[in-house]
Write a structure and sequence with these properties.
Elements (H helix, E strand, L loop, with lengths): L1 E10 L2 E11 L4 E5 L6 H9 L6 E6 L8 H4 L2 E4 L11 H11 L5 H11 L12 H14 L4 E5 L7 H18 L2 E5 L3 H7 L2 E6 L2 E7 H6 L1 E6 L1 H8 L3 E6 L6 E6 L9 E4 L3 H13 L16
Parallel strand pairs: 3-7, 3-8, 5-6, 6-7
Antiparallel strand pairs: 1-2, 1-4, 8-9, 10-12, 10-13, 11-12
Helix pairs in contact: 4-5, 5-6
């Protein structure tokens, strides 16, 4: 569904993305995570065809984004501020969407509207943040896109509104059979709705793949520092703590099950995995601790 080859983007002297290599299969719900300034919004705008790359290529469904009206119709985009036209009513948004989008699904729009409890007669400028997000999602989904891109649409919502928005997002993705890319700082939201992960930091991909296999290839190891030194001498160490008055703990990447020994091995959760890779990217050179070999960028 989405593929990049050596993708780079500069804004003047500032490098937003560098040598991004991604291949995202169709049908996935992708969590795009990373700190502010990592390049997430730039990647999403490139995928929509709103901007062009400085170097490399990006393909959506095998086509460069934004090069043909038919291609634009196959991508739905909800920006971070969930923009709506404040002087138009909810119903007028749907009529406008129907005029602008050749694959517009009026029945789907009406179902999503009723499910969200939005009053068709109400002007968008009088909607709450959660209601605006629901309206923006309804308009994007009713295009019947193959790729649905959402740039932190729930960032400003309260917990209840965010929960409802994510429910409606999953319902829309299931009904459309679409691929979705959700940028979010809320890792619990990513864990709840996503099955594929892309971690960006410093404009580069630090980790990507289906979430289940990624978690399976990582382990949290706790034990005496000397035992961890022997175990991890040839391993990939992402983070390690060695408190003066307790056991040492390391998060490692492993391609095979760790052997039994005088230490405890447990599975990390998604938040721990993401934070470990982000912390590693922030170290000088973007490399892990001196113990172990460097993590191969996927």
């Amino acid at each position: 569904m989405l593929e990049t080859v050596g993708l780079g983007k500069r804004y003047g002297r500032r490098l937003a993305l560098a040598d991004v290599e991604l291949s995202i299969p169709a049908g996935r719900v992708v969590g795009l995570v990373g700190p502010n300034g990592a390049g997430k919004s730039t990647l999403m705008q490139l995928a929509c065809g709103l901007i062009g790359p400085t170097s490399g290529r990006i393909l959506v469904h095998g086509t460069e984004p934004g090069t043909h009206p038919d291609h634009l119709a196959r991508v739905g985009y909800v920006a971070q501020d969930t923009p709506v036209c404040p002087d138009l009513t909810v119903a007028e948004h749907l009529r406008l969407g129907a005029r602008l989008n050749p694959r517009w699904d009026a029945a789907l729009a009406e179902r999503r509207l009723a499910r969200s409890g939005l009053d068709p007669r109400q002007k968008a400028g009088r909607l709450s943040g959660g209601q605006r997000a629901q309206l923006a999602l309804t308009v994007a989904a009713a295009k019947r896109p193959d790729l649905l891109i959402l740039d932190e649409p729930a960032a400003a919502l309260d917990p209840l509104a965010r929960h409802a928005f994510l429910d409606h997002l999953m319902e829309s993705v299931t009904e459309l059979g679409a691929t979705a890319v959700l940028s979010s700082h809320a890792l619990p939201d990513v864990a709840r709705v996503c099955d594929h992960l892309v971690v960006l930091a410093r404009g580069r991909v630090q980790l990507h793949g289906d979430i289940g296999p990624l978690l399976d290839r990582h382990a949290r190891v706790t034990g005496r520092p000397a035992d961890l030194d022997a175990l991890l001498a040839d391993g990939t160490v992402l983070t390690r703590t060695d408190p003066a008055d307790g056991p040492a703990t390391a998060l490692v990447r492993t391609e095979r099950p760790l052997p039994a020994g005088p230490f405890t091995v447990t599975a990390p959760d998604l938040e721990e995995l993401v934070l470990a890779h982000l912390a590693r990217a922030e170290r000088p050179g973007g490399r892990g601790p001196s113990t172990g070999r460097s993590e191969a960028r996927r």
